[in-house]
Amino acid sequence: MAGRPVDHQRRAELLDAVVDYTVEHGFSEVSWRPLATALGVSPTTLVHRFGTKEQMLEEVLERLRERIFAATGDALGQQPDLATAARAVWARTSAPRRAAEFRLFFAVYGRALQAPHQFPDFLEHVVADWMNALTGAQGPGTDPATATRRATLVIATVRGLLLDLLATGDRDRVQDAAENFFATL
Q1: CB 45 within 8 A of CB 94
Q2: What is the pLDDT of residues 88-136, one digit of tens each?
Q3: pLDDT of 130-172, one tens digit each?
Q4: Which keywords annotate this record (predicted)?
Q5: CA–CA separation, 123 vs 4, rounded Å?
Q6: Is it the case that residue 79 has pLDDT exceeding 80?
Q7: C-alpha torsion sign, points 31, 71, 103, 150
Q8: How far, in Å, CA of 82 to CA of 151, rounded?
Q9: Most CB contacts within 10 A, which of 37, 39, 57, 129?
Q10: Residue percentage of the chain with pLDDT more than 90
């Protein structure tokens, strides 16, 4: 007897709801029963749709990474130079409405660094996506080594500034430092 076909639309909607729940409650707080209750489904539905909890969390990480990149990556291709692109990325990542998402992002990043064998896809893409976008934002005439060096500096600086902002909430000081950095580009 064949099982029901997978409803990809419903699965995608459920995954987005799981990501939203995880953003709100944190990565370490995700467990089957409370999650199922919050989403109005049974734990069996979650197991059916995602397999193991670890498989579900991997998909959550992937979708979170996709969301973050989609929300900020579009700004990169529309900018005339690296400084303007970096400012656009900073404006989107440092927006107060994105704070919970980035708190989760950094929590996941730390967990992935501690258990790289559990999160290889996340680690493979977390820098590479941005490296490709930021090197491309520098134009075809830029020496590849220089473009890579600058992109690395932008990624590290923006992430460091974002961590500082999330930890301290001192928007004025961090924004001033960000503007100072972007002026050097």
Answers
A1: no
A2: 889 988 999 989 988 988 988 898 899 899 888 888 988 998 898 888 8
A3: 898 888 888 888 999 999 999 999 999 999 999 999 999 999 9
A4: DNA-binding, Transcription, Transcription regulation
A5: 34
A6: no
A7: positive
A8: 8
A9: 57
A10: 40
Segment 63-72 long-range contacts (CB within 8 Å, at least 24 positions apart): 63/15, 63/16, 63/19, 64/19, 64/22, 64/23, 64/101, 64/104, 64/105, 64/108, 65/122, 65/125, 65/126, 65/129, 67/19, 67/101, 68/93, 68/101, 68/102, 68/105, 69/129, 69/130, 69/133, 71/98
Q: Which domains does the chain have, with CATH numbers?
A: 8-184 (1.10.357.10)
Report whether pLDDT(7) > 90. Answer: no
* pLDDT confidence band for 3 (50 / 70 / 90): low
First to last CA, the chain: 62
* Residue 61, pLDDT score: 83
Q: Nearest-CA neighbor of 118 among 36, 59, 41, 46? A: 59
Q: If you search the block for the tokens 């992937």, which residue do you land on?
A: 62
Cβ contacts of 94 within 8 Å, gap of 6 or more: 161, 162, 165, 171, 174, 175, 178
Listed in sequence order, the residues at least 6 apart from 125 whose beta carbon sits closer than 8 Å to its beta carbon are: 65
